[in-house]
Design goal:
The longest helix has 16 residues. The protein starts with a strand and ends in an 8-residue tail after the last helix. It is of the alpha/beta class.
Amino acid sequence: MQVLVASDLDRTLIYSAAALALTMPDARAPRLLCVEVHESRPLSYMTETAAGLLADLGDAAVFVPTTTRTRKQYQRINLPGPAPKYAICANGGHLLVDGVTDADWHARVQARLADECAPLDEVREHLLRTADPVWVRKHRVAEDLFAYLVVERELLPEDWVKELAVWAENRGWTVSLQGRKIYAVPKPLTKSAAMREVARRTGADLNLAAGDSLLDADLLLAADRGWRPGHGELADEGFTAPGITALPERGVLAGERILREFLRATRGTPAAPTS
């Protein structure tokens, strides 16, 4: 049986220092492996145990990193195990095959965005006009596909995010708050569409997925089985659906648990209890 595993990365399999959630006594903290360096500094981690599990998973299934990151941001991650043949970047806007963008897929995505939602320039202008410089640190456009802000969370007005979500909804866009980033993403730009394309190409019989944010909901719903950690937007909203398991673990230990569940499902062994 061919198994495809499409997993979000940030705060699902890999974690920044701020997101590790090491709540145990220091002497009992897991050993960590750095899997991303940016500007000569360590940036993202997984446990050493998770690294071993991911290497095993890469041998047992078609593992597809599935991220909202741009291609450049994704390519600085150094994951353990075999190099994935496929990777999904920019929330489905780019499908990488052996590290190279599939031009036909990208053209199909761009055509659909042009047909179904308001243009990026309109959304970007709205963000520039309405976001307060008091709490905005950066305005960014990713791959000419979507926009995001880097903000100071403690200063961010909750009402502003809700108002932005309503404004975006009426224009065919969705809003997601992840850590210090607020994403505005066209609704047709989905991880699930790209996952289905990889499943078609690989002839996958079973699709597994994991993710923590609103932008991962469609991916989880499109998979045969899905998992979400005990932190993140989906956990905050109590997101659930048939075939999706809500795990209790939070932080970097959730990444380890998710990989165990992927391996169990790939090998056809019973799942562990969730609490």
